[in-house]
Amino acid sequence: MNATTDRKKTALLELLRTPGNILTAFILALGLCITVLRFTKGLAGVTNLNDNYPWGIWISFDLLCGVALAAGGYAATTACHLFGLKDFRTSVRPAVTSAFLGYAFVVLALHYDVGQPWRLVYPIFLSQGTSSVLFEVGLCVFIYLSVLALEWSIAVFERLGWKKARARIVRLTIPLTVLGVILSTMHQSSLGALYLIAPSKMHPLWYSPFIPVFFFVSSIFAGMSMVIFEGSLAHRFLRGQMDEEHIRRGDAVVFGFGKAASITMLGYLLIRLYGVALDDNWRFLPTGYGLWFIAELAGFVALPSFLYALGVREKNTRRIRFAALLTIAGIVLNRFNVSLVAFNWQLAPEEKYFPHWMEIAVSAFIVTLIITAYRLICAYMPILRDDPDFETH
Amino acid sequence: MRRRKFLSLISAGSLGTALAPRTGTAAATISGHPETLGVLHDSALCIGCRKCEAACREVNNLPTPDKYKTPEKPFTDLSVLERKRRTDFQRFTVVNKYRSKDGRTVFRKFQCNHCQEPACASACFVRALVKTPQGPVIYKPDLCVGCRYCMIACPYYVPAYDYGNAGNPLVYKCTMCAPRLARGQAPGCVENCPTDALAFGRRLDLLELARARIAAHPGRYTPRIYGEQEMGGTNWLYLSPVPHEELGQPRLGKIPAPELTSGALGAVAIVAGLWPAFLGGLYCISRRRDKTAEQDAALAAATARETAEAEAQETLRQALAKAEKEKEAAIAREVKKAREEAAREFEEKAAPQAKEESTPPPAGEPSS
Amino acid sequence: MDNVFYSLQDFMLHTKTLTYILMGLGLPAMLGWWLFLTGRDEEIRKY
């Protein structure tokens, strides 16, 4: 008993010693202060949102990017459980953990953005606006969060030693995985579909009836890239939490997802191009926005796709990790482009929106919470290592 | 003549099946409620006096001055027209001044257009915005969660939000004075307009009125009624002496908002139906592959074992046969040896007897 | 079922609500069918 308390105390003290952790503590403290401001002074007190720009970075980043980057959950579970690729087994738990945390904190972020967060359950339980794409997003995210919680609970039950509960969930692995992919397809695409309703406000190069397909396909390689990225961070900073098999399998996951991402990104690049052709939007390319569109696709889709391919061919994990970073930046760029650059592109420059520093602080706060939670979870639960008391899963 | 007959059909209450159908979906025969009410704004008659703004504020009990910004100038101050304004949470309508390409000064009143197919109602995930058959698009403050998707959806930038309110922030927009309409009155702005710039009545009648006005004054108006077909049509219609875009009206298509998102929502259902089959099938295929690989491996192992066993048995048999042969050969050898030995002994025994008969026995030894 | 729809919005609300309910029934039905279909398969994986 004493040994465990001592271990926990040392762990906590250790936490406060590094510069990274001091920064964490600062961001968390700042975030808490701004939270108080948000709920005493309203959105006007902490954001630069206005009537022309009802959605700012809390939607663009926390919701759109957050959900896209949490797609590693369904990517890893699909690879391992549905395709039967045993190489990916060790990537499943970390991916499910980060997906679960990602979605949970997206819901938290929504509590900041929405005007009356205590009413967030209304659309599900009180008055269903079924004609709305946002209804579908909300319902889906709500159900998917439950699916992720169930998938993640296996690790919890292992930690608690609840064998029967664990066995019951393990039997549900395939149905949960399949349901996870269905729900992910639906809400990833629907987040893009949100913008279908406002064609007159969107720049033609980013508006297409295929936005839902673009968002879904890009979420696939976003998730894979996040698994690669988070995996490389874990290998570097959380190595102590990993067992031999997890360390050994790391490279196979990197090569596997690198390959898959590369081909998916090529497909995505092509359909973005076909989208321009189908709507005959070529004349928009030789403009400022056009150049930005080309930059997004060339620098953040074509290039990383190529680097992934090179890395796979040459068995170069460093190159693949760099490609992953570039891809993730590209996803963030794309979501911002759709929601803040292409949206309202016709408004005069002085009417445009730029986030308030407190909005940025809250977003940083939420990301920090996710990272901190992830580190704690990996330290105390069998995520990066297997629990020897249980059969492998 | 045809038009009148067409209109009488409408006023008889039957659905306007003669009206332009929407796309080739089952919804093709849907048209608006025939009795739906609207307002026609005529920019050729509007003098920009802002009396409609004042009336709106009075009717809706909107606070003056604005508690979050600097006090706004009184409605008689026309200098505000020098900059373009939009609606906000305390200003449901504004009149803006525009300078046309041919140098004329034209005014246009701006407020919620109470669309036939409101994008805001389509977007609202909690049904807080509803198009009533009477005409107004109403808002239900008790349901609104404050997601502000309606503000994203509205092509006219109409809905406004009370961002400064922490406890009960709401969406604000023109209500077409729904309570007044219920009492049989015209909206406040219409009643207080000193010129005939605002006309109130059934939408279909107003369309007819607008067309008549265009026909009666050739050259006075640009020959298009703004709002007739925009995004499925609006209940607030506009006549203008200059092209509507010069008065800041957004250029919009005819496709109504619900139709824009219906495809994506439909795809969701298709995914929910097909993905279980595809993914389940994928899982089965990969399981089958693993299973046959396992079976093949097991079979290969079994075959290898059998072959090895057979070989071992063969070797054993051969060894046994060889051993057997050797044993027989050894036995044969021994038998031969014994025979030869016996024959020699016999001969040896026989030889000394023959020698005894030819020589006398030595003395004292008994003869055998 | 012969509802008169005055707007596409009303039509969509009606059809989508019904479709969501059908989806909610369809997914468990798929699961049930799956269990029936694979009920007598040999287990090769433990999950």
Give a description of the structure.
The complex is a heterotrimer of chains A (393), B (368) and C (47). With 393 residues, chain A is an all-alpha fold. Helix content of chain A is 74%, strand content 0%. Chain A contains 14 helices and no strands. In chain A, helix 11 packs antiparallel against helix 12. Chain A is globular, with a radius of gyration of 21 Å. In chain B, strand 2 and strand 3 form a beta hairpin. In chain B, the strands form four sheets. A three-stranded mixed beta sheet of chain B has the order 8-1-9. Chain B has a two-stranded antiparallel ribbon with strand order 2-3. Chain B has a two-stranded antiparallel ribbon with strand order 4-5. The chains are: A mainly alpha (393), B mainly alpha (368), C mainly alpha (47). Chains in contact: A-B, A-C, B-C. At the A-B interface, helix 2, helix 4, helix 7 and helix 9 of A face helix 3, helix 4, strand 6 and helix 8 of B.
Please describe the topology of this protein.
The complex is a heterotrimer of chains A (393), B (368) and C (47).
Chain A: H1 2-15, H2 19-46, H3 57-69, H4 72-82, H5 89-113, H6 122-125, H7 133-160, H8 163-171, H9 173-193, H10 211-237, H11 244-278, H12 288-313, H13 317-342, H14 357-380
Chain B: H1 2-11, E1 37-42, H2 51-59, E2 94-99, E3 105-110, H3 119-123, E4 129-131, E5 137-139, H4 149-153, E6 160-161, E7 171-172, H5 178-182, H6 188-191, E8 198-202, H7 203-216, E9 236-239, H8 257-358
Parallel strand pairs in B: 1-9
Antiparallel strand pairs in B: 1-8, 2-3, 4-5, 6-7
Chain C: H1 8-37
Helix coverage percent of chain C: 55-70%
Average pLDDT over all residues of chain C: 83
CATH superfamily of chain A: Formate dehydrogenase/DMSO reductase domain
Number of helices in the DSSP assignment of chain C: 1
End-to-end distance of chain C = 45 Å
- CATH-defined fold name of chain A: Formate dehydrogenase/DMSO reductase fold
Q: Mean of residue pLDDT of chain A?
A: 93
For the largest interface, the chains and their residue counts are: A-B, 60 and 62 residues
Overall domain count of chain A: 1
How many beta-strand elements of chain A?
Answer: 0
Task: Supply Rg of chain C.
Answer: 19 Å
CATH architecture of chain A: Up-down Bundle
Shape label of chain C: rod-shaped
